[in-house]
Amino acid sequence: MARPMKRLVVMAAACFGMGVPAAATPPDVITIEDRLFGISATHAFLLREASDNLGSHYSDRRETFLVAINLTTEEEELWPVYRATRSTDFGDSGADDTPVIEVDPRAGMIDPYAVLEERGGMPLSERAGESFADLIDNGRSITITRSDGSKFIRDKANAFGRLQASTSALAERVANTPRLGSRTTRQFYDARSIIADTCRYSALPGSHRFYTAEPVQLVRIACHDGEEMEVTSLIQVVRVEARQSAEAK
């Protein structure tokens, strides 16, 4: 049975940007967020999740990477863990549309727990532990004070620069998923606008201090595009050396 003509027109307009209400053609929105996954004496392990609506209400793309941050150098290693795309099987009316989820082949992807085992790590979430740290933002830097009195300081320009470097590295690793228009998915990742003045900082619970070989503090930096649509929320490491360097300025 042929689908109702109105249904076909709305679907075509959503796909090709015809003159329909703005809600039918959303802007391309990409969000990136870290979740603490584990800790070892030498590394912090994160799951970095990228969500891309592919410029449509009817589809979206999710990619998850394991990130290992060296606690001494702050260098990041990145491995793909999981990739999937949701599309829509359109019915005769919106009420009978069916979501279709396609998972990418596992070739080239890793088991994050295998890496954690290889590096001698322990699974750890942000909610684990009861030791919290206070954070003060003076506009130029942040100062984190733990319950034991130890302090860590991070220059905000440095933190934002690292966030940009992390998102650029991710843009090189995401799959170049087909989308409408002439711009590629990686070009959309590269073109994301994140404004430094929107960034907010928070200290993660200090339970990770029981596992690391040297004192470090994990900090979340969350920024957006000015409209709070494209959000980037990453976890960074503040080392003892960073504290001493900042205090010497």
Could you explain how this protein is built, in words?
This protein has helices at 5-16, 112-118, 156-173, 185-190, 240-248, and strands at residues 30-39, 43-52, 60-70, 76-89, 98-103, 122-123, 133-137, 141-146, 151-155, 200-203, 216-224, 231-239. It has 249 residues and is an alpha+beta fold. It has one domain (26-248). Strands 1, 2, 3, 4, 5, 6, 10, 11 and 12 form a nine-stranded mixed sheet that branches. A three-stranded antiparallel sheet has the order 7-8-9. It is globular, with a radius of gyration of 21 Å. The N and C termini lie far apart (74 Å). Mean pLDDT is 84; it is low at 1-10, 16-23 and 241-249. Keywords: Signal.
Mean pLDDT: 84
Helix count?
A: 5
What structural class is derived from the secondary structure elements?
Answer: alpha+beta
Number-wise, the strands total 12
Shape call: globular
Count of discrete domains: 1
Could you tell me the strand content as a percent range? 35-45%
- Uncertain segments are 1-10, 16-23, 241-249
Largest sheet: number of strands, sense, barrel closure: 9 strands, mixed
Return the string of H and E elements: HEEEEEHEEEEHHEEEH
Q: Give the distance, in angstroms, between the N- and C-terminal Cα atoms.
A: 74 Å
Helix content: 10-25%
Keywords: Signal
